[in-house]
């Protein structure tokens, strides 16, 4: 009898452990999202576990950001939160002694502020992206770069592209324009922090700061190389058109695939990565669809609010809030997945170069 009880207890423990294991494996990119929202010192629920990120989010609520842009900011802040919490754990364990990771996190935070016009500077660069309005190709559309504008105008009149291919090509041009914007923000951030680092107190501190500055300039150099490679690809695509065996449609996925092909990965490794990128592309497309639906939902809510029917307003507001939350979650998962893929490609490339 005692043996049966012991056996039964062991089986229950084993079942519980299996369930726990499945729970840990499931939801790789949603674990953080399923956690209850943190509280501030007064016990009030807040959006993020880091005070400065909450301050940015609260400020964003008061700004006239579009719903899609607000959702994008939220997912960027979630990525920043994840990275900063990971860094704090690293710091406790004795890593990042030279402050390289800390400097990168500070730089990423400044980039977020500048990207959404929250850095206290007057930014004349457009904040809104045309990614949701690909079907509205206007003649006066410009990419704010003479080389891109010239290339785009040639492609439009070349006769090599169908209407659908032109939309896909415009998305690639828009993606490249956004990358130029991000590079300019980063360059401005590095220039401003360089002035701060000139105030050296001790020779030892000076060596550390010099190392951090070198790391920043290396990052800028890599981004400029990526921009040059991206422009060269656009130039080739504009002249030759899309090939029938094009692997992907989404600019971000194409960029990752091109980076992977430049590494020394074996054919088997590239095939495995290609399959993973296909899954990622589906996720990107789904996120884009949700952003479009969020924009439409916001327009409908504005229309209903103008009519003044309280019950109708309540129903549409609930639908809009649910869609906004879902879009934020998907944005975080998509950006987290892209971050993981970028790191994986960089890591594998380095490993093969060392071999």
Task: Give the proportion of residues in helices.
Answer: over 70%
Q: Order of helices and strands, N to C? A: HHHHHHHHHHH
- In DSSP terms (H or I, runs of 4 or more residues), the helix count works out at 11
Shape: globular
Distance between the termini: 61 Å
The description of the largest β-sheet is: none
* Secondary-structure class: mainly alpha
Q: Could you tell me the radius of gyration in angstroms?
A: 24 Å
Task: Catalogue the unreliable spans.
Answer: 1-8, 13-26, 124-140
Q: Please report the total strand number as a whole number.
A: 0
pLDDT averaged residue by residue: 79
Strand content: under 5%
Coiled coil: 263-290
Organism: Astatotilapia calliptera (Eastern happy)
GO molecular function: heparin binding; lipase binding; low-density lipoprotein particle receptor binding; receptor antagonist activity; very-low-density lipoprotein particle receptor binding
InterPro entries: A2-macroglobuin_RAP, Alpha_2_MRAP_C, MG_RAP_rcpt_1, RAP_D2, RAP_D3, RAP_sf
């Amino acid at each position: 009898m005692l043996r049966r009880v012991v056996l039964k207890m062991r089986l229950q423990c084993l079942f519980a452990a299996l369930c726990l294991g499945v729970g840990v494996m499931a939801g790789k990119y949603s674990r953080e999202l399923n956690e209850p929202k943190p509280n501030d010192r007064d016990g009030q629920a807040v959006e993020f576990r880091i005070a400065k990120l909450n301050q940015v989010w609260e400020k964003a609520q008061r700004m006239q950001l579009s719903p899609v842009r607000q959702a994008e900011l939220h997912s960027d802040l979630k990525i920043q939160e994840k990275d900063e919490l990971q860094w704090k754990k690293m710091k406790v364990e004795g890593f990042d002694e030279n402050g390289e990771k800390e400097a990168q996190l500070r730089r990423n935070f400044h980039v977020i502020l500048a990207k959404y016009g929250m850095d206290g500077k007057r930014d004349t660069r457009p904040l809104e992206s045309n990614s949701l309005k690909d079907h509205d190709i206007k003649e006066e559309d410009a990419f704010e770069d003479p080389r891109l504008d010239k290339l785009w105008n040639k492609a439009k009149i070349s006769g090599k592209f169908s209407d659908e291919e032109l939309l896909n090509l415009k998305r690639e041009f828009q993606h490249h324009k956004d990358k130029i914007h991000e590079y300019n923000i980063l360059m401005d951030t590095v220039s401003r922090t360089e002035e701060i680092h000139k105030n050296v107190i001790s020779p030892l501190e000076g060596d550390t700061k010099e190392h951090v500055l070198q790391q920043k300039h290396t990052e800028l150099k890599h981004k400029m190389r990526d921009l040059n490679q991206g422009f060269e690809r656009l130039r080739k695509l504009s002249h030759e058109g899309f090939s029938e065996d094009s692997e992907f449609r989404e600019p971000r996925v194409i960029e990752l695939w091109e980076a992977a092909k430049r590494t020394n990965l074996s054919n088997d490794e590239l095939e495995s990565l290609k399959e993973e990128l296909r899954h990622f592309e589906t996720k990107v497309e789904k996120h884009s669809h949700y952003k479009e639906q969020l924009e439409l939902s916001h327009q409908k809510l504005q229309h209903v609010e103008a009519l003044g029917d309280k019950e109708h307003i309540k129903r549409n507001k609930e639908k809009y809030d649910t869609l906004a939350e879902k879009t934020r979650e998907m944005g975080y998962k998509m950006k987290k997945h892209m971050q993981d893929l970028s790191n994986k490609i960089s890591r594998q490339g380095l490993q093969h170069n060392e071999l």
